[in-house]
Write a structure and sequence with these properties.
The chain is an alpha+beta fold and about 260 residues long. The chain folds into two domains: about 15-80, Arc Repressor Mutant, subunit A (Orthogonal Bundle); about 90-255, Beta-Lactamase, CATH 3.30.450.40. About 40% of the residues lie in helices and about 20% in strands. It comes from Actinomadura mexicana. This is Transcriptional regulator, IclR family.
């Protein structure tokens, strides 16, 4: 979680500071299910009084709820309702049967993700049937340059990453320069799918393809993920074919829903 500093050299635009801080408070619950205002303040670099004021306002709207026994806050019913509505209106929940079919057909973990700035936010995740597997629950965020879903989104999106070079390195295989990333994305556009070859986590590989909406715009990516021992070169073509076929069916389904 990026800290929100109250003092700094770069001042926020007028009228945005309260919104930015409120969003930061809500996002702080991605890493901690229940928190006190003081804990939120320390996590985000806010004053305790500022954190209390924002938490009270969010609690009044139902965005946060409070456990009276511990006085800790957690995400409230309004947040849950808005999240569920967002998923439904993006068509994500209606796409789940196709994701289930992809998981059952390959035995591997399946994720659906969307771009969130220079990260990929996981909307849906279905775990692998194997004991040795890679899991990332909905709500997880991955650096966009390190994951297969991120590269599938970048390859077919005209909006480049805003990160400064060198990009954060997570493993020896991470692409850390714009030139390296662009070369990889050219290959993604030629193949139609992307590959994460242990670029975020050693021992984990993935293959992903873009999903388009009714207007032809890439709005999400679908990925198969798992341990490198099951994602070797002999099996990768079949996994790529499966994820491409699933992405096509998801695109067709979303086109009919739009």
């Amino acid at each position: 979680m990026t800290e929100y500093r109250e003092e700094g050299t770069q001042q926020p635009k007028p009228g945005t500071q309260t919104v930015d801080r409120s969003v930061a408070v809500l996002r702080s619950f991605e890493g901690a299910a229940r928190q006190t205002p003081t804990q939120i303040a320390h996590r985000l670099g806010l004053s305790v009084s500022t954190a209390h004021r924002i938490v009270r306002a969010l609690h009044a709207t139902g965005m946060l709820a409070q456990d009276p026994a511990t006085e800790r806050y957690f995400l409230g019913p309004t947040t849950a309702i808005l999240g569920r509505l967002a998923l439904e209106r993006m068509g994500a929940t209606l796409l789940q049967p196709e994701l289930t079919a992809l998981r059952d057909g390959t035995g591997e973990a399946v994720s659906l993700g969307v771009r969130a700035g220079d990260e990929v936010a996981v909307l849906l995740h279905l775990p692998s049937v194997h004991p040795l597997r890679y899991d990332q629950p909905p709500g997880d965020r991955n650096p966009i340059h390190t994951c297969a879903m991120g590269k599938a989104l970048l390859a077919f999106d005209g909006d480049p990453v805003a990160m400064e070079e060198p990009y954060a390195r997570h493993t020896p295989a991470t692409l850390t320069t714009r030139a390296e990333l662009e070369a990889d994305l050219r290959g993604v556009r030629e193949r139609g799918y992307s590959v994460n070859d242990e670029e975020r986590l050693a021992g984990v590989r993935a293959v992903a393809a873009p999903v388009r909406d009714g207007g032809g715009r890439v709005f999400a990516a679908v990925a198969l993920q798992g341990p490198s021992v099951r994602f070797g070169g002999d099996r990768m073509p079949a996994l790529a074919e499966a994820v491409l076929a699933a992405a096509g069916r998801l695109t067709d389904l979303h086109r009919h829903l739009s």
